Amino acid sequence: MLENVAGAQVARTPEEVRAWVREARQNGKRIALVPTMGALHAGHITLVDAARQHAEAVLVSIFVNPMQFGPKEDFSAYPRPFENDCSRCAEAGVDLIYAPTPATMYPEGYQSHVEVERLTQGLCGAARPTHFRGVTTVVMKLLNIAQADVAVFGEKDYQQLQALKRMALDLDHPTQILGAPIARESDGLAMSSRNVYLTADERAAAPVIVRSLRAAQAQVQAGERDPKLVVAQLVAAMTAAGGRVDYTEIVDPETLQPVATLDRPTRAIVATWFGRARLLDNMDLLP
Ligand code: PAF
């Protein structure tokens, strides 16, 4: 039986989701899935709104996926304001929330994984070697449960989005994987559930990330062709503002391989620590 939490309908098992999907399909509805780990903010609501453009029934999953956290990462500290998430979903007109427990997702004896090889090696994959295997596995399970027409993911996690597109293509999954533009605070900081970890000083400093990406974009569009020089300036700006840069790369937007010269579409991708928040952002330098 579906639960009602803060005005939203909540399913706890794959069977409940499948029954809901069957009924929606019988009523001629297209279905969109928005996978999340909860701690929903306005950025997630832009994903719901994007999903609504493609479907009459929107399903949001809320699951803090243990498989995508490394042993020293913030799995236990990750915020879980479930009631608040449900009320945000209800306000946004979400039709169903799927909120399984880890034991439902990965029951005793679980041993299957999905891996996308090359796209997940560098960038975030370098510092978080088991992360993407956890993401692709859980998303494949969610896609299989929901059988949605489309699934929507934010472009802030650009490498994740590319890996998920590749996974669906390689494994012939019928759900179309769509990216939605990065949602930003008024000062440009990319919205993230991890922004709550920032102290007031770190929060004030963090928009240097987007400012330096915009400066890099302007520089490249004005004719700069050397990616090494652009990367060095990005790193210097973020470091000067107190960031601890994990990586900054300028890559081909499809293959995510570093480019040697800035003469075709490229994306700058950065991960920078401010305090205990590891912040991601990215931008097209040459569209
Ligand atoms: O982007 C996220 O929030 C997560 O990686 C996802 C896609 C919901 C999988 O757990």
Give the neighbour order of strands across the main sheet. 1-2-5-4-3-6-7
Instruction: Tell me which CATH architecture of the largest domain applies here.
Output: 3-Layer(aba) Sandwich
Helicity, as a percent range: 25-40%
Give the class from helix and strand content and strand pairing. Answer: alpha/beta
Number of helices: 10
Number of E-state strands: 10
Q: Average pLDDT value?
A: 97
The largest β sheet comes out as: 7 strands, mixed
What general outline do the C-alpha atoms trace? globular
Proportion of residues in extended strands: 15-25%
Q: Give the ordered list of helices and strands.
A: EEHEHEHEHHHEHEHHHEEE
Hetero groups in this structure are: pantoate
How does this structure look, described?
The chain is an alpha/beta fold. It folds into two domains: 178 residues, HUPs (Rossmann fold), CATH 3.40.50.620; 94 residues, Pantoate-beta-alanine ligase, C-terminal domain (Pantoate--beta-alanine Ligase, Chain: A,domain 2). Helix content is 37%, strand content 21%. The chain is built from ten helices and ten strands. The strands form two sheets. The protein has a seven-stranded mixed beta sheet, sandwiched between helices. Helix 9 runs antiparallel to helix 10. It is globular and about 55 Å long. The chain binds pantoate (PAF).
